[in-house]
Amino acid sequence: MSDKDVTEVLQADAEGIARAARILAAGGLVAVPTETVYGLAARADSAEAVAKIYAAKGRPDFNPLIVHVRDLAQAEKIGEFDARARDLVERFWPGPLTLVLPLREDAKVAGAVTAGLPTIALRQPAHKVMRAVLEETGSPLAAPSANRSEEISPTRPEHVIASLGKACPVVLDGGASQKGLESTIVALRPDAAWSLLRPGPVSHETLERILGAETGADNASIEAPGQLARHYSPGKPLRLSAAEVAPDEFFIGFGGQQGDCNLSAGGDLNEAAAQLYECLHQAAASDKPRIAVAPIPYGEVGRAINDRLRRAATRQN
Ligand code: AMP
Ligand code: MG
């Protein structure tokens, strides 16, 4: 295709993966599928490549990026892993858990990736297409969600294109993201302290069973500057825990509450997480000027769903 005014969509076959890896290795941007959401990837060791991510997303430069790795060995060249970190890796990698650890002094990571913090966020994703891309590219990849800053995260290639347009030159099509929600982010601190910086598919309950009671949560907002109050915005007012719906509202239902889009008719929270951004994209695109969402329970991944909905409901000012 010669027309660079449109985003090129690559099939996730051997040829598509090889082409994506070549573009990334040469310092380009590619939107890649992961099991959480689609990521806008660039090599983490190149300042020029990382700068392209911030420019394409319109992302504030104080908001650091997650670095995706091929395996633990590659991660250990970037972050300082203690016994707790290795235990979490053993249990959850590859998968939707990001660890924030001290940055190694000799780490080959562009300064913009950490936004100047002495720590680094690392994850080994599980999606087989993303794993193949990491394997073939050879470098760790910085990859925030592939949407304009503050907009709804993408779980399908169409969402990436709708949000970024040609600011994203290439998308690798790996189908719909299975988890559908960004990774859980945990910061490990000295002396067994830890805090949950972002709720996600690996639940707070599960982490407390492994790490003990959460400590230092009071610092979380300062330490995860990307956790801005306004995020995941559908661009119109959104009302939470709605028992009834007004005629001008697009209703996102759950369980028995049907709605224009249902997160999970059977009341399954994992299914609801996977459907959340799909329903928010539909609500944003609908003719209805407002959105209402049924109450969602807080247990397990419900906490992460409610966290995203609360931010989606936060208006500017
Ligand atoms: P996104 O890439 O859009 O999923 O957002 C990445 C999230 O990771 C943001 O909320 C960042 O604040 C957070 N993050 C990345 N690196 C760090 C770090 N070193 N310390 C704390 N949070 C981080
Ligand atoms: Mg994001």
Outline:
The chain is an alpha/beta fold and 317 residues long. The protein contains 11 helices and 14 strands.
Describe the structure.
With 317 residues, this protein is an alpha/beta fold. The chain folds into 2 domains: 3-211, DHBP synthase; 238-313, no CATH class. It has helices at residues 14-25, 47-57, 72-76, 83-92, 111-114, 128-137, 157-164, 204-211, 220-223, 269-285, 302-313; strands spanning 8-11, 30-32, 39-43, 66-68, 97-102, 119-123, 141-142, 170-173, 184-188, 194-198, 238-239, 249-253, 261-262, 290-293. A hairpin with a 6-residue loop joins strand 2 and strand 3. It starts with 7 loop residues before the first strand and ends with a helix. Bound molecules: adenosine monophosphate and magnesium ion (MG). Magnesium ion (MG) binds next to loops.
Please trace the helix and strand order, writing H or E for each element.
Answer: EHEEHEHHEHEHEHEEEHHEEEHEH
Count of individual beta strands: 14
**What's the helix count?**
11
Computed over alpha carbons, the radius of gyration is: 19 Å
